[in-house]
Structure prediction request, 312 residues.
Amino acid sequence: MESSPLYGARSVVTIGNFDGVHPGHQQLIRRTQERARELGVRSVVLTFEPHPLFVLRPDLKLRRLFDPADRQEQMEKLGVDLLVIEPFSRNFSQLSPEQFLGDMILRPFQPVALVVGYDFSFGANRTGSIEFLKAQSELLGFEFEVVRPVSVQLGNETTVISSTRIRQALELGDAASAAVLLGRPYELRGIVKKGAGRGRSIGIPTANLDTTIEPAIRPGVYAAWARVRNRRYQAMVNIGRNPTFVDSEVLHVEAHLPEFTGGAAEGDLYGEMVALEFVDRLRDERKFASVAELVAQIRKDILNGQQRLKGS
Prediction:
């Protein structure tokens, strides 16, 4: 952990990965802040980088929901006093629950209270349980609180919000359900890079993004909002392999901004950051028999996407 003048001061602490900082995470953080205000101490959020499953289960090929910069931005918006990002490694994962509690929580943060989520566990082989923390709190004299899950209505079902459930929606391309679960649209951002120029050659220029993380959403064509230069534009986004032209092994993220000045996007935005807020899935990517057939479909996509974006 990096040194900070706030280390050693009394705190109310919460711990988690906080990928997406969804409403369940927000409730946990707000309860931490509320208790910190009541006790007259600072609020601390302890999180990890990279995501533990990247290290412990690379076979799962987990896609993170948002990039690390977003997590920091969301914590700042929530007004957390101190965000601590602990480097995660296999050696770190082998800390016993006693070591983790002592070295990572008690000594640096002097907690008067510890607040965790209903499914929290930690330490080697996740042997640190809620029951363990409850017993330690009674022994060592700090408060311990477990925050209940947050649920939302999805169609006819009441669904508990979790990062896993959000990933499931994104894997289906269900941007609308993901937005309900996240409390905001799923977002992908990146720097505009030079592409092959095919979009411009067919009269539908695109901004090709070098994204900060791999897309967690299913490949396909989407209606989205693009944030660039402090403005918001309609966008039709293709995440795919360009099968009509090359059928690349690499996923490409391309956005056409029909409202952008002159209808152009690519050449005018090189090197700039663009954030894409996904609203609705339009269709799967597919290979067309000709470029003319592809162009005709894209023009239909633009009209369909603009309709979907009305009121969003």
